[in-house]
Write a structure and sequence with these properties.
Helix content: 40-55%
Oligomer: single chain
Strand order of the largest sheet: 8-9-12-11-10-13-14
Distance between the termini: 76 Å
Strand content: 5-15%
Number of domains: 5
Radius of gyration: 43 Å
Largest sheet: 7 strands, mixed
Structural class: alpha+beta
Length: 683
Amino acid sequence: MVVQVESRIYSASFDTDIDIQDEYFTQDGFTYTGLLLGAIQHPPGYVVQQRVDDCGNEEMSNNLQSNMEFGNRKQSNEESSTTFEKQLDEDPWNLSMFDDIQLDQIYDAAPVDKRDQKDEQDKSMDNEDNTDQQREITEEDINIFLNNEKLEAEGVKQDENAENETVNILKPEVGMEFGTREEAHKFFNLYAYNDGFSVSIVSSYRTASKKRNNERQSTVIAKSNCKVEMVVSEKNGLWKITGLHLQHNHALCPQSRFYRSHIYMSDGEKEMIKTMKHCNMPIRDMVAVLAFIRGGMTQLPYNKRKVSNYSSSINREVTNNDMMEVLDWFAMKKKENPGFYHSLDLDENNKVRSVFWADARAILYYDICGDCISFDTTFLTNKYNLPFAPFVGISPHGKTYLFACAFIVNESTQSFEWCFREFKKAMGGKSPISIITDQDKAMGSAIPEIFKDAVHKCCLFHVKKKIDDKGGPLFQANEGLYEEMQDIIDKSLTVHEFESLWQAMINEHNVGHIKIFQDLWKSRKKWVPVYFKNNFFPFIQTTARSEGTNALFKKGVGPQFSMTSFLREYQRIMDNIHATEDQLDHNVVNKKVPEKMYLTRYYIERQAHELYNISIFMKFQNILKDVTRLQIRDEEKGKMYWVFQATNYPIKEHRKRDYLVQVNEETQDYSCICCRFNKDGLL
């Protein structure tokens, strides 16, 4: 930015009776700079005369007016030193070149007639009053000023002459001109930062009339009724300071970074915030990085709230072509891998109602480990407020895996049927063996229509949460009821055991008339674990994996984000999932569990290590560790055994249970009443 400003010409005058010949100025090596700095001796007999004014200040009386003009203007004196000219052209704002000039000891170089002296002084005063000469304020000048302020804060001693000169340049004066109104505002704001107050544009108006009877609308909240103002007016394409008042009625806070007008975030910092946002970096970490680059929190010209607001606004913009960008993203993924699948549900007006997509690699994973899926919906992930429905499963390493995603128009049975139908189509017509959801009735109606052979189980966590929410006072009034109910739900080994113990509990505590227990009994075959002990639900009893996936998305997107922003977050999450799976696949081939990490000397543990990958083997070890609390009793040697918890085990059971294990030594078949192998795929 180059700001044109009008300034006064610094001048001084002095007298001399010495008649200096032209030969003195034409001698070899003569320069005015050398004469000023003392490198060239003044003529013999030359005497400096000074006088003191009424205030005690020394001022020079000389017949020669010395003009020091800054900027890139051409030197008026054609006989000036070429050395001085070159230095001024290379760095016109380098104030250090004037550090050694003693303004109170400038020598006269030629005799001047008294009448000419008087005319010259009148001309100088007239120039000062009219301020008819200009100088420029550049970005370099502003940077020098800010750098001096920084060095002063660090305790580095600065040249007072250079510092005062820079401050004077940055001080507004009537008559200064600027290229645009924004340049004027920026200049005054910089002055306010140095002086210690905040500024704002109070009013702005355009008129062709010289009479202004209309009332101005102010946007400033007056706190101290301070009258400081700078008025700029536009004329002939330039903005000129026409009014100025700099007297404050309040205390100042020089260089305070907390004033609103001084809050500033560079374009580079904004780009860095975008990068950190795409990396899902928390706001506190963003602020820490930005502060480190600036040199500490005290050097940061904005606060955490400013960073948070900008971070939230990155993807908040509402664009009319959002769906076109989504289609372009789908086309790009399809081009990268033809196995990518997507589908749109359109209404009668050809508007998009629902969106479904599945990654090509996810489709391959589903063919390997898609027997069991978890399905749940969540809100507040996009600006359209469409429910987000991820299809979540378990990878070969026991980790959560995302098979497909959908945005549906609502949570009706028709919407779920469309979503399930597209999922089945994307997966080559293969339906899951088992599916777990919450107790949503629309889901429950749609699942048997599309996944006809799938076993549908409701989330145990949601059922228990409803019991806790509705039955709190009841459990407080019936001591032992809550513990008894939890034991029956979680530990029952057979359907007969569950149903008989449940009825006994109802009768003992006399709660059969209470609606919550009636509803639980009617829906028991949808949520009680014992009814699903022979079905494949590996390491899963709830929709926690779905809820964890929803929470993972909500860390990076929210209700203000567009669909394209959500797809970028989806791709980032899928990349992380695949990176984890690739690392675990690498470990299977290249890593083995060391001998010292085995828990027992049983051969079955070594055999499991050969059959399972490392992640599943560690789950098997946890089960094997739990087996050490059990003891065995022969019922029929070689055919039937009873397994039970040791009586001296410190953690007591709520109800003692024996586990029946049946053995066929000829076929080497083993079956336990707990059916863990059937449910989890582990012995």
